[in-house]
Amino acid sequence: MRMETDQFIRTLAADNAQRALPVGIILLLALMAATPVSTAMLLLGLGIRPDIMVAMRNPFFDLKFVVTMALAISAATISLHLSRPEASLHGWGWLLVAPIVVLVGGILSEMMLPQRVPMLTRLVGHNSMLCMSAIPVLSLPILGAAMVGLRHGAPARPAAAGAIAGLLSAGAAATLYASHCTDDSPLFVATWYTLAAGIVAGLGALIGRRVLRY
Amino acid sequence: MLRAAARRGLARAGQPPDQSEDIVQEILLAVHLKRHTWDVNAPFAPWLFAIARNKLIDALRRRGRRIFVNIDDFAETLADAPSAPTMPASEVAAQLQTLPQRQREVLQSIAVEASSIKQTAERFAMSEGAVRVALHRALSSLTAKLRES
Questions:
Q1: Does B143 lie in the same domain as B94?
Q2: Which of A4, A5, A18, A90 should one mutate to test binding to chain B, selecting the residue with the greatest count of B CBs within 10 A?
Q3: What range does the domain containing B112 cover?
Q4: Is B99 helix (H, G, I), strand (E, B) or coil?
């Protein structure tokens, strides 16, 4: 049996019942469903740092949230763009510069202020290993949701879209983790948060290559 | 237009042009299932050709694992072979056989026998909504299977 193309077109035309929702809506819904899961994992597994009320008055503590949210938002914007068949990273990659600019600004201003703790101690921090493992773990539900959302689209470059989805989920997970983490130095953030985000981006690229093809 | 593009793509890749119809169908299926990714404010052609290109590359990659032999080389040996070989089933049709029964029946009824949604619903004693759902599922899983194969 061979299906003729004209018949095939008629078949496709008959399948006109549902208007599929835009990718952005699906992505948003999926992320909204996954974020509480990651939040619960943080609250149950790690908890928020006990001195958070004091810490909130430290601008470098607050800066962590600015950096991580900037990463999440810029990566979300790019991945939404990449979910279209004709899209490429060209002209959009610069959005990822936003969190880097904030972070570099943070490092410079910290350097200008007098510090009690030496630079290397601030960079190594108290718990870099926990940071490197907690951010990827917390990002898993969000990464899964981002994949579900992007699968609804048609990304031309599945690995690239997956990597950006990894950055999106790492940014969101790091925003959560920042409320537990007691290392506030931008140097610590630049080192360990970046490494953690890199791990998740790599994972996202691997998964994306497989599941984001259409 | 798509057909011409598919033929050109195949020719450039040194593949027999008689497969262009399969690829055209795959492109049409992808265009259909991903039609919501076209932004009404964006130009249509780049979107269409991006999908076509993706599917063409996909198909070539898949076919790359198979070997094509030019039949003319064997023309003499084959001279006495049984005549009128059955038309090779297209890729789409081959995958059709692996669909769940209900989806296959619905797809076959609409695609091959060209019945309407309503006639199909009556034939299988389903509601029209159920026929539409089965049809859509059949098309979606067809894509998934084509991608895997």
A1: yes
A2: A5
A3: 90-148
A4: coil
Give pLDDT tens digits for A117-176.
888 888 888 888 899 999 999 999 999 999 999 998 889 889 999 999 999 999 999 999
Mean pLDDT computed over every residue of chain A? 89
ipTM above 0.90 for this complex: no
Instruction: Give the mean pLDDT of A177-203.
Output: 93
Q: Which of B65, B81, B109 is the last residue of a domain?
A: B65
B47 and A20 within 8 Å at the Cβ level: the answer is no
The answer to whether B96 touches B104, Cβ cutoff 8 Å, is: yes
Mutate to test the interface with A, among B54, B91, B119, B127 (most CBs of A within 10 A): B54
Neighbours of B58 (CB within 10 A): 18
Indicate the domain borders of chain A: 21-47+59-211
Residues B60 and B98 in one domain: no
A143: burial class by Cβ within 10 Å (0-12, 13-18, 19+)? buried
Tally of structural domains, chain B: 2
Question: Where is average pLDDT lowest: A56-70, A99-113, A154-168, B94-108?
Answer: B94-108
